[in-house]
Amino acid sequence: MQPAAKARCPSARKNRRPPKWRRPLSKLFTLLSIVFAGLAGADYLSVAPSVSTNAYGYCLQDNSSAMRTCSFDTLEQCIVVISGRGGSCARHPWPAERAAMAAN
After folding, report:
1. Is 82 part of a structural domain of the chain?
2. Does the predicted TM-score (pTM) go above 0.70?
3. HSE of 16, CA atoms in CB hemisphere, 13 A
4. Per the structure, how many domains does the chain have?
5. Helix, strand, coil fractions of the chain, as percent rounded to 5
6. 85: containing domain
C-alpha cells in the first residue's frame, strides 16, 4: 500500500519566501529606484527658469501710428509682428532703461 499523498494547502504557497536569487535583485531594484528618484529630483530642482538677457532688446516703430513699442527679445519676433502692417524694427535706443527692466 502506498502512503497517502500530502494534501497541499493553497495558502501555504503565499507565505513562502521568494527564492534566494530574487532577494538580491529586489534589493538592487529598490536601491536603483531610490537613486533614480534622487537624480530626477535634483535635476528638477536645478532647472532655472530661462531669463532673457536681452530684456526687450528690440523696438517696433509703427508707420501708421508713429508709436514705438520696445517689447521684443529678438529681431525675429519684431519682424513677425510688423509684417503686413509696415514699420521698422531696431535695437532698443535706451540701454539704461533696458538694464532697469532686466533688474525687475
Report:
1. yes
2. no
3. 10
4. 1
5. 45, 15, 40
6. 58-103
